[in-house]
Amino acid sequence: MSARVDVDGTTAALPTGGPGALGAPWSSGVRRRPDGEVEVAGVGAGDLAAEHGTPAYVLDEADFRARARAYRGAFEAAFEQIGTGVDVYYAGKALLTVAVARWATQEGLGVDTASGGELAVALRAGVPGAAIGLHGNNKSDGEVLAALDAGVGRIIVDSLVEIERVGDLAASRGVVAPVMVRVTTGVHAGGHEYISTAHEDQKFGLSVTPGPDGGTSPALGALEAVVARPELELLGIHSHIGSQILDPSGFEAAARVVLQLRADLAERTGVLVEEVDLGGGYGIAYLPADEALEPAPVARDVAAAVAAVCSELGTPLPRFSIEPGRAVVGPAGMTLYTVGTVKPVTVSPAGGGSSDAEPFTRLYVSVDGGMSDNIRPALYGADYHAEVVGRLSDAAPVLARVVGKHCESGDIVVHEVLLPGDVRAGDLLAVAATGAYGRSMASNYNALTRPPVVAVAEGDSRVLVRRETVEDLLALDQG
Ligand SMILES: *Cc1c(COP(=O)(O)O)cnc(C)c1O
């Protein structure tokens, strides 16, 4: 990656916020003022709501930048220690806007894209082509050509047919396409543990495990197919093992498999690929009790594993790259809602005959958004944390469930959270750590308009993506 901006004072620790900060899972700029109102980077929740309306995604710019620096700093330090370099790409699918792409670039990160649309946002932001990667298991010819025309630094190819297609398209443009081959290592991670299976039943990548007839693995076959095409330059091997990973041993296991494959390819073809990318997936805190993965120890462990395996295999060290998305933008964002209907519901615990379980009351707190602005609770059963942020209440906390306004009982924003017993219509409520996969997975279900993305820095807020209007929706409808 050629274009990077050097950042002074690079720090390898995640930002935690100073005195008065609410702490994780909130961004480092979130504090409760003495009068009880919560502020983000100096801007009060009330002012944010008054100026931008609710619901709104609020991004703490300094926190995003600090996390980008922390990942870059930690991995650069660890890999420098073992004698090689590292590139950090921000995975744009977590949240990509023109400003966000610029922040990533200014902090010395590249930008990974997974579609022509994401590529267009990165290019609009002025991200140099060389610092952009293009992913996807089903890229269109148009997307590949757009990437070639932009001079992207790497196209991560995902199948044999795609290798031939990218080769043909590069030939048609008279260019050589820089490619990495995405492989599946059998290592899957996510949540608290990783599992290892020989054969993969999923759409991404090419397996390192030979098929039933033995012989060459699909991954090795694909690498050889790239080597055979003069229109393709084989940069390296790519592996992405999962998301929201809290047990870093999966990264080490995947590194081992990829480095073995690299050595096998070198032995068969004499080509030793220069780069190994281990993807993203670094886990964050969603709840106050969660422990995020800290970049420095992960970087040290992965670097140590890479050094050890390369030394065992007798191969020189590769250049390394990673692609954090959630870990950079997730904690930097929160969603600000206004409370509407509040309804106590008496719940009889499931189990029919068991008479020892007492009925209890759950307070259903409805907000002015829901599954259209955060699909993750409905899609993955994801847990979030919420607080009333417009005032401090001394009412006793009650068990609450934050729900949206959609026509669906699964429209849950926060499954379970303690909120002040006097939570009421008009209260401002914020949900923490919604920066990643919130806006980027948002929909218009029930013809709700998607909320704006508002950045806050040093006491000022500005709109990065404006709120959709019903006119926007009607403009698409051809009647
Ligand atoms: C989703 C994805 C990432 C980012 O994952 P996070 O969990 O957001 O860090 C990185 N690389 C690839 C190939 C991905 O598909």
UniProtKB/TrEMBL annotation:
Pfam families: Orn_Arg_deC_N. Pathway: Amino-acid biosynthesis; L-lysine biosynthesis via DAP pathway; L-lysine from DL-2,6-diaminopimelate: step 1/1. The modification N6-(pyridoxal phosphate)lysine is found at residue 93. Residues 80-329 form the Orn/DAP/Arg decarboxylase 2 N-terminal domain. It catalyses: meso-2,6-diaminopimelate + H(+) = L-lysine + CO2. Pyridoxal 5'-phosphate binds at residues 281, 323-326, 437. Its cofactor is pyridoxal 5'-phosphate. Its EC number is 4.1.1.20. Belongs to the Orn/Lys/Arg decarboxylase class-II family. LysA subfamily. Specifically catalyzes the decarboxylation of meso-diaminopimelate (meso-DAP) to L-lysine. Homodimer. This is Diaminopimelate decarboxylase. It comes from Isoptericola chiayiensis.
